[in-house]
């Protein structure tokens, strides 16, 4: 990571990468299938995402867990995924990078899934009320199985954020596509 400047009203800042691999509230147990909420261990809360074990077809950036949304079983459907400061002591955050990937569910999501091309839209909501948008296009390297997640470095405009909303905007079979995230890197301003 590089050196980051502080905002005039920010007294301190800290770089953080949430890997979704442990749950500090449960003593490090991996709560697969549970909502992430405020348990990722960093400075951000996560809504609409859940812990997921690695699946056939996609290689996580940092095993064993990832965060995901989409149809993971016949009964679980997560919507409106987003992340935001975990409490009011965090003024804002700068979104730096994230690893991501998509699979199409072809049966049991843990056993038979194939990495597929998809487009995810990330909308950063700034403290001043403005928004910034970036698309994350996943193109799996199918010659490498399981397909590795890709890293997206966010545009410099993804600063002074109070929230990032993500949504799947394009895939071959949107209703059968699961989106995975790992190693969410950001700078929290206090």
Shape verdict? globular
> Number of DSSP helices?
0
Series of secondary-structure elements, N-terminal to C-terminal: EEEEEEEEEEEEEE
Class, according to the CATH hierarchy?
A: Mainly Beta
Specify the structural class. Answer: mainly beta
Secondary structure tally: strands: 14
The chain-level mean pLDDT equals 80
Q: What is the name of the CATH architecture? A: Sandwich
How much is the radius of gyration in Å? Answer: 16 Å
**Helix content estimate:** under 10%
Q: Enter the CATH topology name.
A: Jelly Rolls
Number of domains: 1
Strand fraction equals over 45%
Unreliable parts: 1-8, 26-30, 73-78
Distance between the termini: 18 Å
Largest sheet, described in full? 12 strands, antiparallel
